[in-house]
Amino acid sequence: MTAGKLIAYIAAAILIFFGVLFIWGAFSPEGSVGWIPVGLVSVAIGFGLIWFAGRRKPADQTTTQNVTLNIDLPANVNLDSLKCQSCGGVLTMDNIQMVAGAPVVNCPYCKTTYQLTEEPKW
Fold first, then answer.
1. Residue 100 domain flag
2. For the chain, how many structural domains are there in total?
3. Is residue 70 situated within a structural domain?
4. Which residue pairs from 105-112 have beta carbons closer than 8 angstroms and sit at least 24 positions apart in sequence?
5. Rounded to whole angstroms, how far apart are CA atoms 24 and 121?
6. Domain span at residue 97?
7. How would residue 7 be classed by pLDDT, with cut points 50, 70 and 90?
8. 4-18 average pLDDT score
9. Does the residue 38 lie in any domain?
10. For residue range 90-101, what is the model confidence (pLDDT) as tens digits?
């Protein structure tokens, strides 16, 4: 949480607290009816500060995140000779993506998408 958000949340809490006190005090014997609008405006400004602080994104953070995943294959696999299961077209590393933790192939020739599976060795 940035310092600006923290200050906005603290100011909003103070405004809401005193707004509720003004509204509550208007119903006391010494209170005035004019305190109700003051309390309502204070509470509205407090909730507005919370809304604006919650919407604001920090400028120094990026939303994209690069993840490197190394796959250790259990045999001598020659990736240069990987072919599409549907059309037999030659695939490269650019055609393989990780989706939900599983390698998925997108064939540029026939536009087929399928998950790479390892067949048992026995």
1. yes
2. 2
3. no
4. 109/84, 110/84, 110/86, 112/84, 112/85, 112/86, 112/87
5. 77
6. 79-115
7. very high
8. 94
9. yes
10. 888 888 888 887
